[in-house]
Amino acid sequence: MASVLSFKNVSKHYTRGKENVAVLDHFNLEIAEGDFVAIMGPSGSGKTTLLNLIGGLDRPSTGELTVAGERLDQLSGSGLSRWRARHVGFIFQFYNLMPTLSAERNVELPLLLTSLSAGERKRKVAAALELVGLSDRGKHKPGEMSGGQQQRVAIARALIADPTILICDEPTGDLDRHTAEEILGLLQMLNRQYGKSIILVTHDPKAAGYASRQLHVDKGQLLDAPMAAA
Amino acid sequence: MKYLPLIWSGISRNPGRTLLIFFQIAIAFALFGVLQGMKTGVDEAIAQTRADLLLVFPEFFGGAPLPIAYLDRLQSMAGVKTVTFADGLLGTYQKPDQSVYVLAIAPGDIWLTLVPEIFKVLPRDLEALRKTRTGVLMSEDIAKKYGWRIGDRIPLTSTTLQSNGAGNWIFEIVGTFTAHEPGSGGYIVMNYAYLDEARVKNRGTVRNFYVVASDPRQASAVAEAIDRTFVNSSTETKTASLRESAQQQMQAIGDLNFVIRLIVTAVLVAVLFSTSTMMMQTIRERTPELAVLKTLGFTDRAVFLLVVAEATTVCIAAALIGLAFAMVVFPYAAKFVPGLSMPIVVVEAGVVGAFLVALISAALPASRAARLEVVDALAGR
């Protein structure tokens, strides 16, 4: 199966004052298209840095990073923005919805960057909300919804532009057990029925259990085999 | 248009703060509209006054009136096209506090075109005045004020005594005229012949002459020539064009232009700072939201333009409200300075000014929003 993501000797350093901190050190990883991968590791292990690199929010200091067929280490700032719009859907721990926009308008945001007509955008939004089971909540604002519903809206927003890869940063970290299972079930459905490639960062082993593959990261190093299992 | 909900979401993020800024800008531009309208209105009113019309008054205010004999000499001077004159009396109608000024003219056709921007009369009304020695023309304002109608006989009491010693003057209303500015038509117009024949004092004199120069470009020279002609006469003259008189009246108030510019500048600078402060606060509060927009694929430029669009929307909407208020209020303010108007160029300047205020005040916050590091913003740094 084709690779959706490839790290080749990727290192990432940050400068903190006079100190140069290596967060990732010669990191190698490949993830196949359609895979659902959970990345686990203690705080400071480099999980978030990995997500930021995969999502094109940051660039590696050295090495080659290819995601969805694009060398991210060679793209400019605006190039990364355009790439993200086409290929990445983000789902955050605290949803990060616009509080003054309705669910429909929140979900529609990624489509504003396309050339779709208002009618087409409206149809896609309706379809996305139906997929996550929130067709009747489209006009409600985030403040009028439960945490689980807000996360579903965030998932709908992440999916609406049909991205190549979904990136989930502790998506159930703010939810109760029951709601968390619903959300993880939804992600699993998206992967199994729609073939979405999903990268999930989590502390929760139960959440990681929903993924088809689990990776462990510590001190900027991958503790598992870098290549996807055949 | 598709970005309007997103722009609105930013504006309505903190409705209380947005409303405060909105009112501040609206008030600032209402003030701008009224002040700038006064300045522009005054400039336009002066520019529209006739440059070829000269007013000939006695050299010394309150001194002896001008002999009507000057009329022929004025008419025969080089560069003079036509001449007429005016005088008047002040009377009261029914009660001592109901003053009525009576302008006395020789009702020739010259009055049809002499100062239409101040006094407009139809040929039939002028003819009616010519035919009736004791006739008067009235304005709509004074008709409404006293309930007069054409055909009424109105008695006025005046300190200008008639030769029989009485101060009672009886007039017959024979027509109407239009005063250019409503509210300024508190007078009536009579035949000079009636005034001069009946009064006991100042017979054969007039308050002033109106001289129309053949060439407006030569008006100044004609004015000087008139004053030179009468410099050694019993009553010396002081002649100025209508436009010059208007300018002198404005200069007597002081440097109005400078004061207005100072006030308008101070107000707009204050608005600039407060709008910029509001935008900075807004950006700080919305850091995570702006970071999320960037994760969705909004470029730095798009985020910059979004912030500028929010500031521009608030500024222009508020400015339009303020300018509309100024346009409504201005006619009342103009009652104190007749002849003023608020030309549309002031509204256009106001909108441009609002746009510039928005751009300048949003520049720094928008730049900060555009340069936002997504990784740091999402991590809460």
Overall description:
The complex is a heterodimer of chains A (230) and B (381). Chain A is built from seven helices and ten strands. Chain A has helices at residues 47-54, 77-87, 103-108, 118-131, 147-159, 177-194, 205-208, and strands at 3-16, 19-32, 36-40, 62-67, 70-71, 88-91, 165-169, 197-201, 213-218, 221-222. Chain A has a six-stranded mixed sheet. In chain A, strands 2-1-4-5 form a four-stranded antiparallel sheet, covered by helices on one side. In chain A, strand 9 and strand 10 (221-222) form a beta hairpin. Chain B is of the alpha+beta class and 381 residues long. Helix content of chain B is 52%, strand content 19%. Chain B contains 13 helices and twelve strands. The longest helix of chain B is centred in the first third of the chain and has 34 residues, at 15-48. The mean pLDDT of chain B is 87. Chain A binds chain B through residues 48, 52, 55, 57-58, 77-78, 81-82, 84-86, 88, 90, 92, 96, 98-101, 105, 109-110, 112-113, 118, 121, 157, and chain B through 2-3, 5-6, 8-10, 12-13, 288-289, 291-302, 374-375, 378-379.
- Give the DSSP E fraction of chain B (strand runs of 2 or more residues): 15-25%
Kindly report the CATH topology of chain A: Rossmann fold
Quaternary structure of the protein: heterodimer
User: Which percent range fits the helix content of chain B?
Assistant: 40-55%
Major β-sheet of chain B, in short? 6 strands, mixed, barrel
Indicate the low-confidence ranges of chain A by residue numbers. none
Query: How many domains is the backbone of chain A divided into?
Result: 1
- Under CATH at level 1, the class of chain A stands as Alpha Beta
